[in-house]
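Ticket reopened. Same input as before:
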Amino acid sequence: MAALVRKSCSALHRSVSRHARLATVCRSMASKTPVGFIGLGNMGNPMAKNLLKHGYPVVAFDVFPEACKDFQDSGAQITDSPADVAEKADRIITMLPSSANAIEVYTGSNGILKKVKKGSLLIDSSTIDPAVSKELAKEVEKMGAVFMDAPVSGGVGAARSGNLTFMVGGVEQEFDAAKELLTCMAANVVYCGEVGTGQAAKICNNMLLAIGMIGTAETMNLGIRLGLDPKLLAKILNMSSGRCWSSDTYNPVPGVMEGVPSANNYQGGFGTTLMAKDLGLAQNSATNTKSPTPLGSLSHQIYRLMCAKGYATKDFSSVFQFLREDESA
Amino acid sequence: MAALVRKSCSALHRSVSRHARLATVCRSMASKTPVGFIGLGNMGNPMAKNLLKHGYPVVAFDVFPEACKDFQDSGAQITDSPADVAEKADRIITMLPSSANAIEVYTGSNGILKKVKKGSLLIDSSTIDPAVSKELAKEVEKMGAVFMDAPVSGGVGAARSGNLTFMVGGVEQEFDAAKELLTCMAANVVYCGEVGTGQAAKICNNMLLAIGMIGTAETMNLGIRLGLDPKLLAKILNMSSGRCWSSDTYNPVPGVMEGVPSANNYQGGFGTTLMAKDLGLAQNSATNTKSPTPLGSLSHQIYRLMCAKGYATKDFSSVFQFLREDESA
Amino acid sequence: MAALVRKSCSALHRSVSRHARLATVCRSMASKTPVGFIGLGNMGNPMAKNLLKHGYPVVAFDVFPEACKDFQDSGAQITDSPADVAEKADRIITMLPSSANAIEVYTGSNGILKKVKKGSLLIDSSTIDPAVSKELAKEVEKMGAVFMDAPVSGGVGAARSGNLTFMVGGVEQEFDAAKELLTCMAANVVYCGEVGTGQAAKICNNMLLAIGMIGTAETMNLGIRLGLDPKLLAKILNMSSGRCWSSDTYNPVPGVMEGVPSANNYQGGFGTTLMAKDLGLAQNSATNTKSPTPLGSLSHQIYRLMCAKGYATKDFSSVFQFLREDESA
Amino acid sequence: MAALVRKSCSALHRSVSRHARLATVCRSMASKTPVGFIGLGNMGNPMAKNLLKHGYPVVAFDVFPEACKDFQDSGAQITDSPADVAEKADRIITMLPSSANAIEVYTGSNGILKKVKKGSLLIDSSTIDPAVSKELAKEVEKMGAVFMDAPVSGGVGAARSGNLTFMVGGVEQEFDAAKELLTCMAANVVYCGEVGTGQAAKICNNMLLAIGMIGTAETMNLGIRLGLDPKLLAKILNMSSGRCWSSDTYNPVPGVMEGVPSANNYQGGFGTTLMAKDLGLAQNSATNTKSPTPLGSLSHQIYRLMCAKGYATKDFSSVFQFLREDESA
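Engineering reply: fixed in the latest deploy. New output:
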């Protein structure tokens, strides 16, 4: 399967990429032609709407009919399958929940690759295993099209307001074409390197984020038990070397900051389940590359445990609550 | 011992503190009277010299004759014991390497308490167990004097340039008197709360610092193995939620930043042994207060292991090197 | 304090131990003279009763009057303080909940050392920090008496049936005298080496026990989720290299074994709080000796967290339950 | 790819398995017909030789010509590819180093499935991801053949002496046919349940083994530093609740036991790299099933780190050495 695909692919490589480059030129002249969008969930829906707002006709698909219905009302054209999207648009963005879904949408029996046009630009904004992104890129390239991974940071709010950050991996000369579309949804579009590095940047950031958040939570809890006022402790950390995004921008202790999930009973924000998923991807990547990640690995376990103990839907800063003494206990 | 001290102390408490307060008034009028300084090591020496520079006569002691000799050349008066310092100065700063040393300097047979004057202000800038600070404070108070814990952040460089940060715990009305002296050595003097909270703030900060540093090291290593350029990865983290002091100010990866220990083969900076020591204090405090600190605890183990594997004298950011594949392996 | 005690003690050492040895001879001839017992809790009560059963008159003390009352009904003599016990018996066993309690009972204002007779044998069966045992031994020796640490393994059941295991540290020539008494309460009395090694053996065993238990719990849980029958998995582990006491004698998965706490909703057995306490002692010892203990340290954190989340009074094998998905979640 | 395979497979399922069952009957009558063996490495070579010793003609393949040459001298027939093996034998055992190799040997362009006969019995003794075993089983079943996973425990020595333990997953009615062959190489052949459970049992055992080994190493090291004699400590643990296979059968401390790798500078035995690989499989399985495995995960990291620090080829009990103070440091 995957392993074999890899081998047969390298010979084909050179001739195909020449075709792809030619096609690119045509594409970039043909702005405002229809853009495909597959995956109309919490994130995909507002992202696709921002494309509409910028004047792009959108041809969309989602496995859930309700998701399609809601989006159709916005003026988009709905199709029957990823393959149909590929027939009608030569620029496609996919926003899917998992590696397995991405594999199916691209290579499935009604997948994009069944009808993809030569020279098409396929941008996957899902957060998935970078090794899967690389496999998909090879399959796409075999069809004479171009694949880029472009996962996002920023949640539903940023998706709505068009303030996402895209981390983009893929052939550098295609980056401008991708950026043209992604800019409609983004505050930042960062080129990270070859295919898979967008995913790599995303999961690296989220691994360090998780470590910083748990570290902040246990540090704040320890300080409070040692008699420090939480606001004062946060202030001291933030002017010192303990400073991090979780301490100065998203503090997990209720009462320290306003407008963050800890001020709202850990509602909203970035759910523990999603963090556990991203940390699972980080661990897969660490295992594949034989990279020791002791704190990242333990952080994964802690979020995994939190999912099992009733914190699945709370914001990931609820680890502060998880580490505290239960009042009921 | 300690437990018993605690009990007998509370009765004495009220009458003593009245004396102390009275004495304070006298002290604050008597600026530029001699200041005692005990502990003339890498940190203590430049700290005491900054007191001299600000015009304070200094009466000093260190167990190592060479340390005394060097300091005497700066114009200070050297005495034979902590007790002698206490006889000649009613404001004393101590800067010692461990809890055991602090206990001996204060309560030993030639310790400060043998000859301390009523109303004296004793400021301990050592980084020690906050529980020991509290015990010392009680012993000091029994003698009618005042104790404050005031550990520092910032290394030898900051000590020389007078740019330390002091985190101060103790009776609030004494804070101004302490600040008068500490300001000679500091960029920041922060009041943290009752006795022991200076230490608490210090060890909390350093625990989160260690977590952030190890987290940054393993994240950067993972990203590099996944094909990301280290400078680009650092840039992405620093504009995202993975940002922390260790990623944006003290990056552990050689070549990412200039002027940090990673750019100089991990020479200088904050040694792994010292970090392991501070994390040991954090763990003691966590155990005493029954606070779960999973990442802090694992960070302690990692720095402990590094000390055993030849990294003891390198800067603590060398954890990046520790996690990497040995080139020789 | 402690540090200073250490120094002044070494000179005194030789002359004292000669006295102690002489006294030993007299003691061992005077069997069935009264034995002191301090600490009549869940463990101490049945232990002291076994001494009575073996014909030893017992002179006892506990801070809780009810504990004394109950024991008095068994025919023992109750005194007013540890000092009084020391006045009436030259062999004393102490069974106390913490280091702080032991320090007070030995060195407090009404402590044993206030009235201890030369040549007395003081056996501490508490589980405390080995460093504290060593300090107490030095104080005791200064009075011309002998101190041994002799913590137990085995719970309340073993205490009742006289089937405890004692791990004994102290001067080897005193071991027989200690064994004479301990045998009344024990299935095994093991000599471990100099003072403190009894504690060391105890906390080492319990640290490895905790690691084995958590390891067994997470392994069984993983196997079950992968489709294995729990009984079959336990059988496979127990005939393979995964075998450990927690898998073959005290399996944490309900339904795998009978007569263990997991078969009884984790009632009885060895409470999570006690395990967390012993792991805290292990961590203190590891920090003091700069020994890396990554799994021991993480196990401490897990039991600490369990105490905070409602598992404090359950048997420590309830970690299996802690790691599982909540049915209510 | 994998995901799609899964779907299309279920319809085919029933009719195929009827064929397979019929074929089984024929197979079990035709004992001593040729047996295929693919993978003639350190383990595979002695395993296949044991089949020869028991009178089975062996048709073999390995990608390395030298491995084939050596085996040919034993009297086996060597073929050009896995497909050729499948053409000449309807019972095949595979013993391969990784999931990727197994995928290639079964589904590659010259793989077994290219020429497998209906009713063939394919037994994979590689240690691989149980999810991959399940995928392979589905592909095999589509061809009307039977797949079982049967990883082994026991190293090269047990492979030579025919004392391996096989943990077998697959359809229960095929177990006897598999056992007939495996018994030639085994002391134990254990039926674990449906396809994948053999792998599950194997990786569960090895995860608990790793935890027990690291736990034993850190406990022994701590005890030694606290003044205990290592042999005595091992004895105490082994009669107490700390007992495990790593303490009583394979003690990692030099001088405690004879005939184990720790007595021979950690030569031989089960290499750190292999343990790291198995723990990686365990972590993949834990992530896939969302099972928290805090100690298993940290153990993985520790063996990963050891591989990076020069312990890759030493026995996995060398973790004792890894945790100790370097003499050179």
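Confidence is low (pLDDT under 50) at residues 1-26 of chain C. DSSP finds 14 helices and nine strands in chain C. Please confirm and we'll close it.
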